[in-house]
Design brief:
The chain has helices at residues 27-41, 69-93, 115-123, 141-151, 185-191, 198-206, 221-226, and strands at residues 7-12, 46-51, 98-102, 111-112, 127-131, 156-161, 166-167, 179-180, 182-184, 211-215, 233-236. With 237 residues, the chain is of the alpha/beta class. It has a single domain, classed as Carbamate kinase, CATH 3.40.1160.10. The strands form two sheets. The protein has a nine-stranded mixed beta sheet, with helices on both faces. It has a two-stranded antiparallel sheet with strand order 7-8. Helix 1 (27-41) links the parallel strand 1 (7-12) and strand 2. The longest helix is centred in the middle third of the chain and has 25 residues, at 69-93. The chain is globular.
């Protein structure tokens, strides 16, 4: 298998871990994701992962429930750590070495995020999971993914979703929606397409970091993408 990318950052949503459940973590989905990630790492690709926390708690929902936004965002960050620990456990159960680095200090369960340490772990072939977002309220895990990808000098952000790319409209609601194979950052802005939140997307554009949106739930998609097959939608300058 020829590798297109040497170092990737995989962004997964917390909701993707729910499987068919209403909330929480589906063990079969978690195990499946772990297998897909390990298959790529086994090819010599350096893999970093950022997971959202929406299957457990969303900070932006907090204000409606009377919880302060900053407090709610911190709760959301802790939810991402729970998901990160679950993924770490699933990866190690399948025999791969990992490291969990947290933006919020919690020494008993994760290393603090230190850029050079993260890069060294990747160079040693460990799968690195970044938890707790950026460590700051008002920033999403999409922004955390963009920031960490830039910091570790990843070649690309791979955003695993439930749909197989970016469409002219929501394909789950509009059957006439057509898929883009490739699109520029400027076109995404102009057409008002929802790829990532604006802060995350702007970070990628300013640092010329390509994004690929693809269906993570289709077995083998991640490996095919790494091998250079046209999977999902590529966003680039």
């Amino acid at each position: 298998m020829s590798k297109t990318y040497k170092r990737i950052l995989l962004k997964l949503s917390g909701e993707s871990l729910m499987g068919d459940q209403a909330y929480g973590i589906d063990s079969k989905r978690l195990s499946s994701y772990a297998s897909e990630i390990i298959a790529v790492a086994a090819q010599g690709v350096e893999v970093a992962v950022v997971i959202g926390g929406g299957n457990i708690y969303r900070g932006m929902q907090a204000e409606g429930s009377g919880i302060d936004r900053v407090q709610g965002d911190h709760m959301g960050m802790l939810a991402t750590v729970i998901n990160s620990l679950a993924l770490q456990s699933a990866l190690e159960a399948q025999g791969h070495k990992t490291r969990l680095l947290s933006a919020i200090k919690m020494e008993q369960i994760a290393e603090p995020f230190i850029r050079r340490r993260a890069v060294r772990h990747l160079e040693k072939g460990r799968i690195v999971i970044f938890g707790a977002g950026t460590g700051n309220p008002y920033f999403t895990t999409d922004t955390a993914a963009s920031l960490r990808a830039i910091e570790i000098e990843a070649d690309v952000i791979l955003k695993g979703t439930r749909v197989d790319g970016i469409y002219t409209a929501d394909p789950e609601k509009d059957k006439t929606a057509t898929k883009y194979e490739r699109i520029s950052f400027d076109e995404v802005y102009e057409k008002g397409l929802n790829v990532m939140d604006l802060t995350a997307f702007t970070l990628c554009k300013e640092n010329a970091l390509p994004i690929i949106v693809f269906d993570m739930n289709k077995p083998g998609n991640l490996a095919r993408l790494i091998a250079g097959e046209k999977v999902g939608t590529l966003v680039e300058l």
